[in-house]
Amino acid sequence: MYDPLVNAPPGPHDAPGASYWQLHTQAEFPQCADAPEDVDFAIIGGGYTGLNAARTLAENGHSVAVFEANNLAWGCSSRNAGFVMKSTGRLGLSAWAKRFGEDVAKGIAQEHGLGLRLIEKTIEECPEHCQRQSGGYLKVAHKLASVTPLQQQYDSLRQFEQPVEWLDNSALSQVIDSPQAHAALRFTDCFAVNPLLLAAATARRAAKAGAQLVEHCPVTSAASLGKKGVYLETAKGNVRARKLLVCSNGYTSQQLLPKLASRSLPVLSSIITTPPLSQEQADSIRLSPEYAIMDTRILKYYFRLLPDNRLLFGGRGAIQGKNAEDPVFAKRLLKAMHQTFPQLKDITQWDHFWSGWVSVSLDDYPRVGKFSDNIYASMGYCGAGVSFSALAGQRLAECAMGAALPKLPYYQSQLKPFPLPKFRRLAQWFYYHYGRLLD
Ligand SMILES: Cc1cc2nc3c(=O)[nH]c(=O)nc-3n(C[C@H](O)[C@H](O)[C@H](O)COP(=O)(O)OP(=O)(O)OC[C@H]3O[C@@H](n4cnc5c(N)ncnc54)[C@H](O)[C@@H]3O)c2cc1C
Questions:
Q1: Is any ligand 1 atom within 6 A of the Cβ of residue 81?
Q2: What is the pLDDT of residue 82?
Q3: What's the gap in Å between 302 CA and the centre of ligand 1?
Q4: 69 lines ligand 1 (CB under 6 A)
Q5: What mean pLDDT is reported for the chain?
Q6: Looking at the structure, do residues 158 and 304 belong to the same domain, yes or no?
Q7: Ligand 1 center from residue 81 Cα (angstroms)
């Protein structure tokens, strides 16, 4: 599998990566365009971020082209679990308040709410409403010792007037039957979708606004020419643009933009799905497709029952791209699934197994804004970007058009460089072992 720290940019014809969504969804993407030679704004990456940025720029009357290395949404935007959460990065609101003060935490909460509303608007325009499941997102205490910290998080979220609900052991046992579910925090306004339908709906909105979407067109070099804008080499010819928006996130090749890529750790998140559960199996775990669930581990697992009764179960994957498809990582997820639901121990094989690259930042939160002369970038969502990417794309476009962004840490500083970036993977290996011990 493509590895951003090792390989040149992906494309132009890489396989989609066997995601359940690609194989089971009829998604209607818009007609793609030829590569232009000249454009106001060029965007690298045709996932949620790039497509939302393109729509915003086109709606404001600018000429804009999105260059996607493979099919539109080939990266995380067609591979994720479809949890639409009101967060990004790894900091909760109380952590934001502790680091930057209450006003910043309130501003962050507002931005997250805006991200959610942007997704809802896109979903409204999709005939199937992206197969929305509205039961909420549940953060589940996987062991007794996690209950008190989770309850503290609940108290703090209520102080920030967030729509959350506390499910004690007895209430939670109506929703899920698992020895690793002791209590839960329910985010009542969060939901789950089919991520590929969301990507297609986002692309249709961008195309309708007038954005040119160019598929199978990796950008192979990018340089700023100062006052003359930027110059790109692509698989379909050379392009001049006034400004460049880098929206390749976890898929950003170290070889294309080394200074930017050194500020992100690309991490593989992996998913398996079971074969469709029998009614008896589904009843035994008591889970309904309405809910999107994540646990409280350091190395988190997340799962949901899909509308066709397959159980989707995800967590961390391999460290290097060359090992991404090794069945050992699917087996680890299966084992974790058995620990969560011993009732499913007879399921010994998965139907689908796939992975994608998420971008992890050094200090646990993303950055959106100007990176260098004529170059703007948004990355570092740390694996939580379905709803935030809609907002990030819009904010990045606003910044590139010269608007002032809200005075929040997402927008007012740059991603921190990793010290000794060559050793990022070694640090990741140690972190995985440390996390496994604690979990
Ligand atoms: C397995 C998995 C599960 C996840 N589950 C969730 C979830 O449930 N909820 C949630 O909030 N988040 C989840 N995420 C994270 C979420 O999917 C991402 O944060 C989000 O999709 C990022 O969108 P993006 O547009 O920024 O990047 P991507 O969708 O990754 O798009 C980047 C694109 O850039 C393209 N590209 C790269 N280099 C070039 C180049 N040189 N030229 C042209 N194109 C290029 C790539 O082909 C790729 O399509 C998950 C991620 C994974 C991998």
A1: yes
A2: 98
A3: 17
A4: yes
A5: 96
A6: yes
A7: 11
Give the chain's radius of gyration (CA, Å): 21
Mean pLDDT (whole number) for 287-297:
96
Q: How far is the CA of 358 from the centre of ligand 1 (A)?
A: 6
Interstrand relation of 291-295 and 136-140 (parallel, antiparallel or unpaired) = parallel
Final residue before a domain boundary, out of 316, 334, 360: 360
Per DSSP, the three-state class of 394 is: helix
Domain extent, residue 422, equals 20-80+196-263+362-434
CA–CA dist 164, 7 (Å, integer): 43
DSSP code, position 135: S
Is residue 13 included in any domain, yes or no?
A: no
Q: Quick check: CB of 353 below 6 Å from ligand 1?
A: no
pLDDT one-digit tens code per residue, 75-111: 999 999 999 999 999 999 999 999 999 999 999 999 9
pLDDT tens by residue, 335-392: 999 999 999 999 999 999 999 999 999 999 999 999 999 999 999 999 999 999 999 9
What is the count of structural domains for the chain?
A: 2
Q: What are the structure tokens assigned to 426, written together?
A: 């070694």
Residue 12: is the preceding peptide bond cis (ω within 30°)? yes
Q: Does ligand 1 have an atom closer than 6 angstroms to the CB of 92?
A: no
359 pocket-lining for ligand 1 (C-beta < 6 Å): no
Query: Contact at 8 Å (CB) between 86 and 189?
Result: yes
pLDDT in tens, 131-189: 999 999 999 999 999 999 999 999 999 999 999 999 999 999 999 999 999 999 999 99
Q: Whose CA is nearest to atom 21 of ligand 1?
A: 77
199 close to ligand 1 (CB < 6 Angstrom): no
H/E stretch holding 234: strand 230-234
Looking only at the bridges linking them, the beta strands covering 352-360 and 265-273 are antiparallel
pLDDT tier at 314 (50, 70, 90 boundaries)? Answer: very high
- Hey, whose CA ends up nearest to atom 16 of ligand 1? 385
Q: Is the CB of 75 under 6 A from ligand 1?
A: yes
